Amino acid sequence: MNDRHYTPAYIAEFVTNIISGEAPELVADFACGEGALLRAASIRWPHAKLIATDLDEAAVACLRGELRVHYAASLDFLNPPESYIDMQLSEFEGSISLILLNPPFSCKGRSSHQTSWNGINYRSSKALAFVLRSLIYLKPGGQVIALLPLSCLSSQKDAHVLESLSCQFEIEVIDQLQASAFKDCNVRVAVVRFTSRTVAAAGVASTEPPSMLTNLSPLFVTLVRGSYSNPPKKILTSGRYPLIHSTDLKRHSVTSARTVNSRRSTISSPAVLIPRVGRFRLDKICEYNLSTTSVLTDCVIAIIPASNSELIDLIGRMKDRYVDLDEAYSGTCAPYITLSRLQRFLARIAVCAVVPERSRDKIRLEVDTIAGRSSLEQKCAA
Ligand SMILES: C[S@@+](CC[C@H](N)C(=O)[O-])C[C@H]1O[C@@H](n2cnc3c(N)ncnc32)[C@H](O)[C@@H]1O
């Protein structure tokens, strides 16, 4: 099973559009398949040299005929042969500025792959093993943009590798794709960027503000956007569940006076609540730790950590960088924040945020990313 779920052209274009700044000199894809990602790269940066490898000989041959590649070879990237081909590839170690990957995902049950990186052997999923091995070829300051199954970001199997990588790389979940993005494949996929921290701090390869918190271990959280609209103006206390609106977020705590009977958009685990719409202030970063279930209005976002113990850490990180969070609110009428902007802010404090399907902004991600976010943001503000 070679996981031939090739990247649709519009997603490949989105991936290359993430990169800003100088054109990369060398762009590689070590599981190139039919070359969708490299094709998009060659359109965006016509002078970039392309490096293409894949297990599938026929795919590589086809790509060679179609794209002007600097180096192409058929090889098993996870178990490379000690051969001439491998020697040739080793010439690129530490020299590739941009690596684009849609690696094979299939990894049965508990099976894992061993990869050596920085002299340490790591066990991980196949997809993350691809990322890890590709880092050998990354130029200092270069970036890897990988389409990874969401499970990579939350599974125990990959947690250790991500934690180790986060010391040297800023890991950002740029966006998530619809489950239907790939033909015949129902896996939820995240677009994840790995940027070498040293150069991110020097401001060379990334347009994102550098993370000052380089020694933080990554936290994994789920974002839930409330969806209860039109909260009752009157204070109703006969409902079953407390209703939490953005005006109930004050002085770092939640004081809900209204109740409703809806079970829509509920939250029942410890979380950080922030307003989605409205003016942001430091004291609007609120700890939610009620033992009851509550309902969130559509003006509130919940950031749910994986465990209670991580809640305090998360709040601390957010408070430390609340100025950046404030900047993520924008809008001509009422300021608001989108889930994508919140994800980008969280990535800077080493928090990988996953958005479950039901909580996503109503418009499909494809529309968001291709139309350049503005239409989505306008709808969110409305
Ligand atoms: C999901 S497809 C992605 C192809 C291409 N990068 C794209 O975005 O369209 C995964 C590719 O990985 C290749 N592959 C699977 N296992 C591999 C391995 N061990 N080494 C190199 N390539 C592998 C498959 O042949 C397939 O072309």
From TrEMBL:
Keyword ATP-binding: no
Keyword set includes tRNA processing: no
InterPro entries linked to this entry: SAM-dependent_MTases_sf, Small_mtfrase_dom
TM annotation in the entry: none
Keywords: Methyltransferase, S-adenosyl-L-methionine, Transferase
SUPFAM superfamilies membership: S-adenosyl-L-methionine-dependent methyltransferases
Domain of life: Bacteria
Methyltransferase small domain segment(s): 25-118
Identification of the protein by name: tRNA1(Val) A37 N6-methylase TrmN6
Species in which this protein is naturally found: Methylobacterium goesingense
Organism placement in taxonomy: Bacteria, Pseudomonadati, Pseudomonadota, Alphaproteobacteria, Hyphomicrobiales
